[in-house]
Amino acid sequence: MAGDAGQTDGSYDYIMAGGGLAGLSLAYHIERLASRPPRMLIIDPDRKENDDRTWCFWTAQATPFDHVVYHVWHRAAWISDRFQRVEDLAPYRCQMIRGAEFYPAAREALAQTGRAAFVYGRVDEIQDSKNGAQVLAAGKAYLGNWVFDSLL
Question: What is the pTM of this model?
């Protein structure tokens, strides 16, 4: 079952085997940092329409997905029977992003250029080839100059 966007002819600059946080954020950053518009394919067995994950991370600067941050902590507390201390975390903060907001925001950001294609199906095999790597997924073979596997 192929493509929401972009080409699906089988040859790509980058293939992400996995369309979760790792695959989508890597595709987002490659697209914005590449010297020319890359042809990308993101393959995942699931359309990621549920709130299946939550991620928390520390940062001291703005991030591309601040608009979907669910919660931010600016202070931390250490509490035990003999000790209690609350600290301001500045310049850092801890942010939480939920899958329900991240997945559509990342797909929307990638869709703006139309250079990323999506295939929803199981990745059966990834094998090296003389021109990169071949990914067998959803009954088809795709060739990528670079393939990143985050499905494990």
Answer: 0.85
